[in-house]
Specification:
Layout: E1 2-4, E2 10-13, H1 23-29, H2 31-37, E3 47-48, E4 57-58, E5 62-63, E6 74-75, H3 85-111, H4 123-144, H5 171-183
Parallel strand pairs: 5-6
Antiparallel strand pairs: 1-2, 3-4
Helix pairs in contact: 1-2, 3-5
Subcellular location: Nucleus
Pfam families: DDE_Tnp_4
Cofactor: a divalent metal cation
């Protein structure tokens, strides 16, 4: 399990879980998952979405796949059956965010070729190899930067406002608001309708 920042750097990794376990089970049993349950993660303060000055204050969210439960800070896609256009747009935008994780692991594996094959060492040492690769990858990323054009929107976490989250907004309402935002003039991107 890994958390990433907007520059493809690892900010949290957990490599001690069984590969056969689902992502949601790994998250739930991790220190981070337990801290999330207890509201101790220090997730940035909620804020209004980009270009949505008159909109609602929304929480920062972890992007998870279908196996995750929906909560205030965890967004999962809609079920794929019979979706209206707005929900298909949400799922597309959600998948783009999750794809960043896949790209980061691809970059990691291509840079540190030991990850392209089975690592024939004991489990504890294997965990240390993976953690070392992630640490070295962050170091190289800071030293060399990104070597290709980055077209993603940059959202710095330091500019968060001090608004409080509306307690009456359910996790379903949060996902629905993001869904509406992604099809609004403020939150849509030109190519999204071609991709669904």
């Amino acid at each position: 399990m890994a958390w990433l920042d907007e520059d493809y750097k690892f900010i949290y990794i957990d490599v001690e879980s069984q590969g056969s376990a689902s992502d949601s089970t790994i998250f739930k049993n991790s220190n981070t998952g337990r801290r999330h349950q207890e509201n101790l993660l220090n997730i940035p303060i909620e804020r209004i979405l980009h270009n949505d000055e008159n909109g609602k204050i929304m929480p920062f969210c972890i992007v998870g796949d279908e196996a995750f439960g929906l909560s205030k800070n965890i967004l999962r896609p809609f079920s794929k059956r019979g979706l209206i256009v707005a929900k298909r747009i949400f799922n597309y935008r959600h998948a783009r965010a999750r794809r960043m994780v896949e790209c980061t692991f691809g970059i990691l594996c291509n840079k540190w070729r030991i990850l392209h094959r089975p690592i024939d060492v004991n489990i504890e040492f294997c965990d240390k190899i993976v953690m070392a690769c992630c640490t070295l990858d962050n170091y190289v990323r800071v030293r060399d930067g990104i070597q290709y054009p980055d077209t993603a929107y940059e959202c710095t976490l330091s500019n968060t406002s001090t608004h409080q989250w509306h307690r009456n907004m359910s996790c379903v309402n949060i996902r629905n608001y993001f869904t509406s935002y992604f099809i609004s003039p403020q939150g849509s991107v030109p190519w999204q309708y071609e991709k669904i």
